[in-house]
Specification:
The protein is mainly alpha-helical and 192 residues long. It contains 5 helices and no strands. It has one domain. InterPro entries: DctQ.
């Protein structure tokens, strides 16, 4: 039951992270196209024409605050993908040394890394929580669109908290795997 809940949570976060990344990519493309068209419409032969004035009047140009929105969205997306990567063992690894070690030693290493990673994720989530409170208390906003900075922190905090939860679950499973000698979770992601 717990395994299904954790997996559903991790997959949901990955889907949300993918949606946010997709929206960011579309926004970046629209902003680049708008910036290009704005430049074209402000240069000869279109400069000063009624057509150019009409298009520019519609607001053709870069999206105001696009960098600020990308910054906020990427913070969320990064933390949104951590739970599924942790759960499936998809983090990058170099196994030159560990490939020659026995299965028991590799289980110990997997357990220790999972515990360490869970601890790091808990610390990151805690620090993001503190940062969210601090940014909300001071009312800091972004420069161009006056977007409250704490909103981005809060969105990243959701991802970090779920990543910490999944990290703790994976650490507990790795301890159980070590104690029983049974494989419960994948050791590593796909081979490339």
């Amino acid at each position: 039951m717990l395994a299904r809940i954790v997996e559903a949570l991790a997959r949901t976060m990955a889907v949300l992270g993918g949606l946010v990344l997709s929206v960011l990519v579309m926004m970046i493309c629209a902003s680049i196209l708008g910036r290009f068209l704005n430049g074209v419409l402000n240069d000869p032969p279109f400069e000063g024409t009624a057509f150019a004035a009409w298009l520019l009047g519609l607001g053709i140009g870069p999206i105001t605050g696009d960098f600020e929105l990308v910054e906020a969205g990427m913070a969320f997306a990064i933390f949104a993908f951590l739970p599924i990567a942790q759960l499936t063992g998809a983090h990058a690894s170099v196994d030159i040394v560990t490939a020659g070690l026995g299965e028991r030693v590799n289980r110990v290493l997997a357990m220790l890394w999972a515990i360490l990673f869970a601890a790091v994720l808990v610390v990151i989530a805690w620090q993001l929580y503190q940062g969210t409170l601090s940014k909300a208390r001071y009312g800091e906003t972004t420069y161009l669109i006056q977007f409250p900075v704490w909103w981005a922190y809060a969105a990243a905090l959701v991802g970090a908290a779920i990543a910490a939860l999944v990290g703790c679950y994976v650490a507990a499973v790795r301890v159980a795997e070590f104690a029983t000698g049974m494989a419960i979770l994948p050791d590593e992601g796909p081979e490339h």
